[in-house]
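hey so u asked for the seq, here:
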Amino acid sequence: MLEVRDLHAAYGESMVLQGASLRVGAGQVATVLGRNGVGKTTLIRAVAGLMPARRGSVLFKGEDVTGLPAHEIARRGVGLVPQGRRVFPSLDVREHLVVGERPGNGRGWNLARVLTLFPRLSERLGHRAGKLSGGEQAMLAGGRALVGNPDVLLMDEPSEGLAPLLVRELARVIAELRAAGTAILLVEQNLAFALRVADHVYLMSKGRIVHECSAEELKGSRELKGKYLGI
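ran it, structure tokens below
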């Protein structure tokens, strides 16, 4: 479904991604883990088309989408829950969820269903996103991605700012998306959450994927956790 091949990306002269490669199949949840500053968010941004690749390629359903603008990649069925939420402060909650809606491919996510998932957003429909709390913005960013009914969902620290009850609900939603065939690429600082929802793990260091394994293998490996995660 999604394949990243030898991807390089930089901020100015600072080369952050230095040949990252991974694959995520339909109905698979893959998580990218690593210490702060190793390039995880840059990887998500480069796959989504938010920053240019210096070298390498991104394939979606076999099509090379490297270099396409972000809106074209989204239109093909790649959804994004970005780090820091990235909501539009001047748009209200309803506008965010209506503008992002895309017909469902049988997945059935729409405004009403998102409001059922996040009842707090029902109470805030007419409120501008810039006036929401951090947790409410997290719900809105997740809902905005879901109404797009993506075939691939990129999630950059989606549990940040969510109460424990909503983190558990997020895990349930990810399981539902996986069962419906959505491929999910997850970056997450909450290790327990990441390992609970993921099938496969990619460990990142210095802009490269340096190890891959099942979530179960990482759970039981103190050596890998110590070497690549510092725990």
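The CA atoms of residues 34 and 204 lie 5 Å apart. The domain at 2-229 is CATH 3.40.50.300 (Rossmann fold).
lmk if thats what u needed
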